[in-house]
């Protein structure tokens, strides 16, 4: 047994530590290589212990939520991958919802509905975790995390726990101080307003219908691939470039919504990345617009 694996078993139960784990099991695109060490902590203390251990021993570590807005390259990820999807507790204090980072933002919006609280309707179809949603200030249909966030509990790369208020987060379009500093979200508090259950549900049903009718949910994908250029829509630029249906390997620009790239078979991460670059180059040559990726691309290339 190697030393890192043995050390991790001293920090976490053996059912929370995996070696050479295929990451395609944890991404929405169903692509990605292996993690050297894959851990599933269930408490903040365990997360902190793993990060402090990694820092003491100069071991790289990567945070992974539910893999909805990420492409992991085919060579996988070196060091330790911390998957936080076991941190899922959601609780209520007056009109505030306190939620651990591994809970999905969809479940959080449903919890808000059950408690007759309005403000999170926009999130009812966003497939990421709360941690990921806060990290990138996720949004949809005219709403975003910055509209309702009150405070966030984070763990710094050095293993220090900080409580950040809304102003500390410097939230902007698909960005935050959390992503710039590389903090790890442990918990978020959303400040909502009392509302009418039926009106909240009606809005959520409407947004769910829009999402299901417009997005290619029948295939694996990483969601919306590109950020919206100022005053434009990425999907329309891609569509107007004649790229719908364009395929590299089994990665395809969706014929249903050009802002999505779907896995229509056995796509690799390399197929995805090549297609993303091709789309960017084509749109730039036709419209002089540089499309910036919203999806995060991490990991290492496969060495053949």
From TrEMBL:
Keywords: Cell cycle, Cell division, Cell shape, Cell wall biogenesis/degradation, Cytoplasm, FAD, Flavoprotein, NADP, Oxidoreductase, Peptidoglycan synthesis
Residue ranges of the TM segments: none
Catalytic activity reported: UDP-N-acetyl-alpha-D-muramate + NADP(+) = UDP-N-acetyl-3-O-(1-carboxyvinyl)-alpha-D-glucosamine + NADPH + H(+)
Alphabetized GO MF terms: UDP-N-acetylmuramate dehydrogenase activity
One Pfam family recorded for the sequence: FAD_binding_4
PROSITE patterns found in the cross-reference section: FAD_PCMH (PS51387)
Stored InterPro entries: FAD-bd_PCMH, FAD-bd_PCMH-like_sf, FAD-bd_PCMH_sub1, FAD-bd_PCMH_sub2, MurB, MurB_C, MurB_C_sf, Oxid_FAD_bind_N
Pathway, per record: Cell wall biogenesis; peptidoglycan biosynthesis
Required cofactor(s): FAD
FAD-binding PCMH-type domain residues: 31-195
Enzyme active site: 174, 224 (proton donor), 294
Entry's EC annotation: 1.3.1.98
Cell compartment(s), UniProt: Cytoplasm
Family per record: Belongs to the MurB family.
Role noted for this protein: Cell wall formation.
Protein name, entry field: UDP-N-acetylenolpyruvoylglucosamine reductase
Organism: Bacillus bruguierae
The encoding gene: murB
